[in-house]
TrEMBL record:
It is a multi-pass membrane protein. GO terms for molecular function: amino acid transmembrane transporter activity. GO terms for cellular component: membrane. InterPro entries: AA/rel_permease1. The chain crosses the membrane at residues 28-46, 58-79, 100-127, 147-169, 181-202, 222-246, 258-279, 337-362, 383-402, 414-432, 444-463, 469-485. The keyword Transmembrane applies. It comes from Solilutibacter silvestris. It is found in: Membrane. This is Amino acid transporter. Its main location: membrane. The keyword Transport applies.
Length: 499
């Protein structure tokens, strides 16, 4: 049953062979591509989330998440170089494990990209609200956060998702030059933060005690170092942009690993410096519950704790942590500029994630696993407008109602499944098709890939209970849809597949 309806890799590659892409990307370009794709909401927003879960120990969480991503990245690169076509892990799974697993992975990617986009929308609204408030233009408090985050309706998060949906429908694309500028803005903002916060942190060793207030983790998941690592994993998602550029890379055997590992190392160093600066300069000890453990972020208990006057300035309660640190250190103008950097740079991440989600479901629709209507193209704008609008509505309301941490955890659940399946897929292809050309080969694959799967499983177990429940419900809904529709309408099953 596992290898049921496997789509031959040669069939998948037919599409790619029709249009060969020029190999022109070198190691530096790939590294910059990875840095631009990775740095976003994770570091700008989830620093407070990680601080609440692990306190100063969040720096260890950054390293753990980076190691798991690095292992998965090496596995991802081998399959991406073998199957350099669209569809991401869904397409790879279709060619390795068959239709049922491909459906499960594609359905899970809906959580990665769709809920991930909602996460960035909430992160963006936190900085925008902070910027407006700091300059005397605050909108009503009940419109600043969602119903499940202590407010009522996150208006700016809703509007940002709505605006990006319109852009995707009319086909407005990102300029490569604009993207480069946005990457530069993010790097400059983080560099300024490190330059100002780290020296202060060095003078406040007391802020690092206790170092592990939540321990390594809870049996229920969600808090502690491992819980923080499961959340902060979101800060590294995007590195696969490097591996999916395999077809356009010069000497991919050498340059793909340089781009992947190089971008992860640079981002990890930035993250550790930012974490050290934030924790050491103003402190990041978590709010503790009656049991002496950190309160789970994004819960009514956390909202109540942050509403107390004595906690008003706590880093772990901030929706714009990096700007908040700068203001606490007396650099109000710098705080505003960091807020502006986040406001300018994060919308491109929203667009990338919503684009990815719509294209995954678009590909599944073309394979017959979802209704054909979802892959219909607008006659004027030439975009998959139906699935884009549906995605936009779901993302907008999730962003308007839910807290950023729960959204990030839920998004990570889909990502971790996809990465685990890709890592396992490398080993299956090593056995089933050992002679197929591999422009890039995962080093020590029989060690790296199992460790990647185990790492993904470890982080999944330590996600919040809410995220695991949502993932389970999402999976059940997906299996029901597949049983009632996809399994019967599949083009591969009916011999009508065009690719």
């Amino acid at each position: 049953m596992l290898f049921w309806r496997v789509k031959p890799l040669d069939k998948i590659l037919e599409t790619a062979e029709k249009k060969a892409l020029k190999r022109q990307l070198g190691p530096i370009q790939l590294t910059l591509l990875g840095i631009g794709a990775v740095i976003g909401t994770g570091i700008f927003v989830l620093t407070a989330e990680a601080g609440q879960k692990a306190g100063p120990g969040m720096m260890i969480a950054f390293v753990i998440a980076a190691i798991v991503c690095g292992l998965a990245a090496l596995a991802y690169s081998e399959i991406a170089s073998m199957i350099p076509v669209s569809g991401s892990a869904y397409t790879y799974s279709y060619g390795v494990f068959g239709e049922l697993v491909a459906w499960i992975v594609g359905w899970a990617l809906g959580l990665e990209y769709g809920i991930g986009a909602a996460t960035v929308c909430v992160g963006w609204s936190g900085y925008m609200n902070g910027l407006l408030t700091a300059n005397g233009y605050a909108i009503p408090t009940w419109l600043q956060t969602g119903y499940f985050a202590g407010g009522t309706f996150n208006l700016l998060a809703f509007l940002s998702a709505f605006a990006v949906t319109i852009l995707l429908v009319i086909g407005t694309s990102k300029s490569a030059k604009v993207n480069s500028v946005l990457v530069a803005i993010k790097i400059i903002a983080l560099t300024v933060f490190v330059f100002l916060a780290v020296p202060v942190a060095a003078d406040h060793k007391e802020h690092f005690t206790p170092f592990l207030p939540g321990g390594w983790g809870s049996p229920m998941g969600g808090v502690g170092v491992l819980g923080a690592a499961a959340s902060i994993f979101f800060a590294y998602v995007g590195f696969d942009a490097v591996s999916t550029a395999a077809e356009e890379t010069k000497n991919p055997q050498r340059n793909i690993p340089i781009g992947l590992i190089g971008s992860l190392i640079v981002c990890t160093i930035f993250y550790l410096l930012v974490g050290y600066g934030a924790v050491g300069s103003v402190g990041a000890q978590p709010m503790l519950g009656p049991n002496g453990m950190p309160i789970d972020p994004g819960t009514p208990a956390m909202a109540a704790a942050c509403a107390l006057p004595q906690n008003a300035q706590a880093l772990v309660c901030s929706h714009e942590p990096l700007a908040h640190v700068m203001r606490l250190l007396g650099h109000n103008r710098v705080g505003d500029w960091i807020g502006i950097a986040a406001v300018l740079a994060l919308p491109s991440v929203i667009l990338m994630m919503m684009f990815g989600q719509t294209r995954i479901f678009f590909t599944m629709s073309r394979d017959g696993l979802l209704p054909d209507k979802l892959s219909s193209v607008h006659p004027k704008f030439h975009t998959p407008h139906v699935i884009t609008i549906i995605t936009g509505v779901v993302v907008a309301f999730c962003a308007a109602l839910l807290p950023v941490g729960k959204l990030a955890d839920t998004s990570n659940s889909g990502t971790l499944l996809a990465f685990a399946m890709v890592s396992a897929g490398v080993l299956v292809l090593r056995k089933s098709q050992p002679n197929r050309p591999r422009p890039f080969r995962t080093p020590l694959a029989w060690i790296v890939c199992p460790l990647a799967v185990l790492g993904c499983l470890l982080l999944f177990v330590n996600l919040s209970m809410t995220a695991k429940i949502v993932f389970a419900c999402w999976a059940v809904i997906g299996l029901v849809i597949y049983a009632l529709y996809g399994s019967k309408r599949s083009h591969l099953a009916n011999g009508t597949s065009a690719s």
